């Protein structure tokens, strides 16, 4: 009779410890997910800003270079403007295909969180199969 209350207390304590462990794991994973979200947001904003600065700088530099060449070689202005138009359209086409390729091959934004959750699941399954009462 004395074994029943002791084993019930042990079972209750084990259940509480198990619940506390699961809550701690869940909290850790949520914090990791939050960190992943922050990192992805910062990365996206940084890439967007750098790409805008790059596009603006290249646009202004290209316009100035073409203007300088047209003024320097005024007699051949039609040939120069035609050549730069072809170059601009070709580089635009190249950028378009590179952008499409980049959008098709995206990286997995929450790879660390998914890997940690998979590892937790593997460990939980291993612990459940090694329990003495599961035989």
From TrEMBL:
Top-level taxon of origin: Bacteria
Protein name stated in the entry: Putative membrane protein
Organism: Candidatus Accumulibacter vicinus
